Amino acid sequence: MDPNANLAEQLALASTILGTADATYDVRPEDAVALATLVRALDVWLDGGHSLPARWLPHRPERTVSREETPQEPTIGNSDRIALAGICLALVLLLKWCGW
Q1: Distance of alpha carbon 83 from the chain centroid
Q2: CB burial of residue 39 (10 Å; 0-12, 13-18, 19+)
Q3: Smallest Cα–Cα separation from 28: which of 40, 20, 36?
């Protein structure tokens, strides 16, 4: 799984859902299901100790890595889990709002 593509798709779906969540109640159930599926896939990915999406990494100045240095994948800390829990909670509330 590509965490960057997953997150990009989540954000696009969230924008679509939020953009249509007005008085006309045009939220498509398949968009909510797709978003829920992506959230769960990313959660499994992160829970497996894999790398965070690049967008969630702290921005650091570029530097040259010597051949002796081995870059390590970032690990998931509590703040990342709290942020992901917030996203999941928002998704659950959205699904309830849609009547699921």
Answers
A1: 9
A2: buried
A3: 20
Instruction: Give CA–CA dist 64/59, Å, rounded.
Output: 15
CA–CA distances in Å: residue 49 to residues 7, 83, 84, 93: 17, 16, 14, 27
User: Average of pLDDT values for 52-63?
Assistant: 74
* pLDDT confidence tier of residue 71, bands split at 50, 70 and 90: low
Q: What percentage of residues in the chain have a pLDDT greater than 90? A: 4
Region for residue 5 given its phi and psi (left: phi exceeds 0; alpha: psi -120 to 50; beta: otherwise): alpha
CB-based contact 56:76 (threshold 8 Å)? no
CB-based contacts of 41, cutoff 8 Å, min separation 6: 1, 6
Torsions phi, psi of 92, nearest 5? Answer: -60, -45
- Tell me how far apart the alpha carbons of residues 59 and 18 are, in angstroms, rounded to a whole number: 28
